[in-house]
Queue: 2 jobs
Job 1
Amino acid sequence: MKARVHVMLKDGVLDPQGEAVRHALGAMGFDGIEGVRQGKVIELDLADGTSEDRVAEMCERLLANTVIESYRIEVL
């Protein structure tokens, strides 16, 4: 079984990497970009029987900094 964890900065948290990407896109001639948020995707290969609750515990303890980041779990 696989799980994919999407981690993003929470709304209101400054995203300097996203801002750098937005600026670079504008410099390359891509108009109309008002904002960019950058995140990460973590793909886990799980043993059979591993619950989504267990994946959430992994997120809470290591994979996401829950003070400034939110996460979403997708079981594949």
Job 2
Amino acid sequence: MLDLGRLRALHAVHTHGSVGAAAAALGYTPSAVSQQIAKLERETRTTLLERQGRGVALTDAAQLLVTTAGQLLSIVEEAEVALEERRGTPSGRLTVAAFPTAARGLLPGVIAELIGNHPSLDLRLVEQDPHVSVDLVTRGVVDLAVAHDWDIAPLPAPDGLARAVIGEDRCDVLVPAGDPLARRDTLVRADLADARWICQPPGTVCHDWLLRTLRAAGTEPDVAYHVAEYHTQLALVAAGLGIALVPRLGRGPVPDEVVVRRLEPAPARGVFAVWRLGAARRPAIVEAVRVLRERW
């Protein structure tokens, strides 16, 4: 009979792309993961991993096992959910993925409350951009994702996922104190036509929103600095190098050299939680979503 733990190790290598990444996700050492797969190879009398450059690739036989492993792990998740539901209290491991400002501005209090009220709950946090975190939920890598999207750039929700709105995160324009824009209490999009922008790198939700919004207003934004961290964006604005559109969630203190101005119509991103339908009844998921909404 095939060992579920060894199948889980193989499935993790497939999901994460390497033995090292699989080990990190499972909480094992790379050596332990390699040993599990070596034992599975002996059990099945089949080569499952092949060297490919500095990494490994799954063989065709391994791909077949991965499909079966996914089905088995889904059944195991259903059983775990049923047992936790029977106990009636959040317990076991709950891995949450959250975008950076939520990880900083929302999750610390949420995690502290959940752990404080439910000692049997082992809660883990992974910081990820929404494009990645929702996919991680779909693939069973994490249990719950806190993600965001914008009205003109909605994030697709794959089949098999449930979604709940947590709240709305409004954004403001951050301007150097000496900039002419700082003299106005409220800005409109036409005011930003000649601005030099500090923004997230291409491919992120915030970058896509900025480009689509300003292009819809007839302006091609001049993004001079691609910076992922909002704290770094604040530092660049304080140095007088450009302006930035920064959400209020997790923004933190604003330097004296920076002024905050409203933009009309006010840009806002929707913040929501996502989880697999198969785990919808799990008390840990239900309680985590409740606390997220309550603390918003």
